[in-house]
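User: ok so my PI wants both of these folded by tonight, can you help

Assistant: No problem, let's get them done. Here's the first:
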Amino acid sequence: MSSVSVSLSRSKSRLSKFTETFTRKSSTGEPSEVITIRSCGTQCLKGKYSLAPTGNWIMRKGGKTYEILSDEAVIEDSETGESVTHQAWFISRTDEGVEYNIDYYWNTMDISNHSTPPSAGWNALVGQDPPPKLTYRFMFKPQDQCLVLPDKNEERIFHGRIIERASGGYVVEIENSTIATYIPKHKLKSYIPPPLHVGNVVETKIKNGRWRNMWIQCQITATNPNELYDVHVLDWRRYGVCPNAKDVPRKLLREVSETKETRTKPNFEIGKYIETKIISGQHRGIWVEAMVENVYMDKTYDIKVLCPAKYKICRRALSVPEHLIREPQLIKLNTE
């Protein structure tokens, strides 16, 4: 390989001349949406760079802006003396805090595969050794949660879920909609959902049946290892689904979207002694003593009947509606 001298030709640059070994490193496919620099002698350049609409990868840190970008460079072959203008890659500081771009490293561009800068083979300008090593990834994978940024004439930011990757963006299922929509990647932002706790009301999706793809509310009843949760489906009768589900992955649960509907607090607490009404059988209509074991935000209860053998009924009943529960009735004693 020939030894070359390179000078930068873009307007906001400090002209640099140096002699280095000319190395080629190709890249293929669409541009990577996120480039990470983990290994680099210039510590300030370490971090994640996101692909911007300009086509550059940008990282903002400590009020400074760093970019991975392409631009023209005049390359002078020291053997032939010829000067040739080539597209090259640069890792630079570009914010208004510097009069000219500070170019830390450069690398050649393979014109036939110019979508993404090479992972290695970078040459130092003002950067320190060792030179950077780049790794690549896409912004999202299927089922990741995200934020959909508003247009200029809108204000609300919507929550979404990634369905699949598409050219220049992603197919996203946006909250309050069962129809997936293409969203360009510059309007998407990563979102890490907060941890869930017992008692939290969230939403889960119905997978089949009449209400397929409908998001319905449920309540966390237990947290398990590996971000798995047991849930109780609120209004399960309405949708004809099982009232309880075990080991539901976190990615299939989402925070409740804002609606006009509000739920009032249930009237009975766990451990409360109550009476429940027998609705069928020989003792139909009789109120019997029981105790509340679980409470749900749709005002249903799991209860334990205290004298099941006496009335020939099950000891436990699940998802009992509140209208079948009442405070214990005091019995007036005859003192005459």
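One down. Here's the second:
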Amino acid sequence: MGAKHKIPVETGRYYRRYWLELYDGGSDQWLYVCRDGRFEEGKGFTFFFIDITDMPAACGRDATYRWCASVDVVELLNASQSTIQSAMRSCGYEHKLHMMMESDRLALAEMLWQHGAKAPAWSDEGGKITFDDYGNVKEFYNENCPEFRRLRKEAVEFCEETLFDESNRNDFLMNRIVNKLGQSAREYANGTDGLWDSLRKIKEMGDEANPDQKLMLKIYANAETTLGAGPIPDDLRNTQQKGND
């Protein structure tokens, strides 16, 4: 974890219209965060991240636009212990976390975000780019670029209109389907545990599952392990294989 967590967040306000800058573009990425309210009001456990990436810096001449912006939600109270532990290990964090401390809640939220244990809520891109004969971008842009500012503004407005209200947020995260497994944004955020739960639901659906879901279930059922999620649980792998015998 970097020095950014030395920010005195205990007395700072970064909720609703106040956003805290975690990454300032030094690595061609800007990351802003706010939470759902004051901890003393029973909130402060849900975090909203706005990520803006310089795409030519990230993928060179393969980039087709200048900026990619996204909004993700991290809900500490919905993250399983195994997901939390996996996120802390992947970020090399070995210290004990105290959830009564705002700085530790923020640190955990960022680790979950980095680990991919986040609910994808919104994304957009923009900004034209041109390359010279050597693959270098001809234009120099930073956060003062009009397209950057437009994307950041729209991301903030999306959070204000859709995510800040708890009831709206719950409906949105439970109904937004984000992949061919049919996972909701909230299910996706629970990492490996959410993956296995989704595959079990597909198996229970039987013939009611759509072709994409059946294909994904078959792929996992015929594998022994995955690159990032570990071994396939026996109730998914062995049962499905027997059904194919």
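The chain has a mean pLDDT of 86. The chain has two domains: 3-175, 190-244. Good luck tonight!
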